[in-house]
Design a protein that fits this description.
- 13% of the residues lie in helices and 19% in strands.
- By secondary structure, it is α+β, with helices and mostly antiparallel strands.
- Strands 2-1-5-3-4 form a 5-stranded mixed sheet.
- It is globular, with a radius of gyration of 13 Å.
- It starts with a strand and ends in a 12-residue tail after the last strand.
- The mean pLDDT is 94.
- It binds FE2/S2 (inorganic) cluster.
- The site of FE2/S2 (inorganic) cluster has 12 residues, from loops.
Length: 111
């Protein structure tokens, strides 16, 4: 059972979190089930970039992103080579370390 480490993110997950996940689970769903409220403005339909995350470890274990995901991801704030849309990305067999960007393209969060 892969371990998923969410790195600390000031607003959504200040202390970070370590959870176990099943292979095939969607990263966004894992976060939401653990009360990490990653935005998902398009309700997981691969039409926004608000669920953007960066896979700091384990990226190469993931199934490659599809054309549609790449197209949408291109518009994400803070895009990196290891960026993915968390609503489209399934856990594979390896552990993951995930960074949730501080901002989305929609707005800078203010609390
Ligand atoms: S929630 Fe919109 S692309 Fe993931």
């Amino acid at each position: 059972m892969p371990t998923i480490i969410f790195l600390p993110q000031k607003d959504l997950c200040p202390r970070g979190m370590v959870v176990n996940a099943n292979q095939g689970e969607i990263i966004l769903n894992i976060a939401l089930h653990n009360n990490i409220k990653i935005e998902h403005a398009c309700e997981k339909s691969c039409a926004c970039t608000t669920c953007h995350c960066i896979i700091r470890k384990g990226f190469s274990s993931l199934e490659a992103s599809g054309e549609r995901e790449d197209e949408i991801l291109d518009k994400a704030w803070g895009l990196e080579l290891e960026s993915r849309l968390s609503c489209q990305t399934k856990v594979a067999s390896e552990d993951l370390v995930i960074e949730i960007p501080q901002y989305t393209i929609n707005y800078a969060r203010e609390y």
